[in-house]
Amino acid sequence: MSDFPDNVATETSSTQSQQGGSSFQLASISMDLGLIKSIPGILMLAEIGLGLLQWALIASASSLIPAYGWVMFVAVTLWLLTIILFFMLFFGAYHKLSSVPWPMLVMVYNAMATVLYLTAFLANAASVAPYISTYFYGHMAAAAFFGIVVTLLYGASTFFSYLAWKGDGGNAASNSGPA
Question: Which of 67, 90, 141, 158 could form a disulfide bond with 123, CB atoms 3.0-4.6 angstroms apart?
Fold first, then answer.
């Protein structure tokens, strides 16, 4: 204990949001509160919420049709990846990883999610008919409905991601945020 220094020097710093939005900082974690007020942030939250609802509806039914394996894979995987992406953007990971082309990465992710969700929706919608006389018909029909809604949300996110990428000029070394 005698080796412990008598004086300890500390330095603190704060970062401001690059987009002019409000930010909240706690220790070394900063939260971009402007994200949840922006259109891309609202779309991501809707994708998370409605994606959860879609895969919960499918998981609640006894699935006898192999197509629902694909629908569940797409819904759960993209739901988890969207949550991870949202928290990375919300906590400002793009400031720490400035070498990653965030606007292009988010645009490509949203475009791939749109295509994958479209295939999952088509598989889901095409497989609803066998359930017409069962208790789970409503679950599967509702899952198909929410599947197309989430597909449209990812499509809108792709559009806004494209606008953000185009406004950035596609510069891979850019330090700006994706949304």
Answer: 67
pLDDT in tens, 45-81: 999 999 999 999 988 877 667 888 899 999 999 999 9
Is residue 70 within 8 A of residue 123, CB to CB? The reply is yes
**Residue showing tokens 């599967």:** 140
Contacts with 174 (C-beta within 8 Å, 6 or more apart), sequence order: 98, 101, 102, 103, 168
Residue 85 main-chain phi, psi, to 5 deg:
-60, -40
Q: Per-residue pLDDT tens for 79-130?
A: 999 999 999 989 888 778 888 888 899 999 999 999 999 999 999 999 888 7
The Cα 76–Cα 122 span in angstroms is 16
Per-residue pLDDT reduced to its tens digit, 13-47: 554 444 455 655 555 677 888 889 999 999 999 99
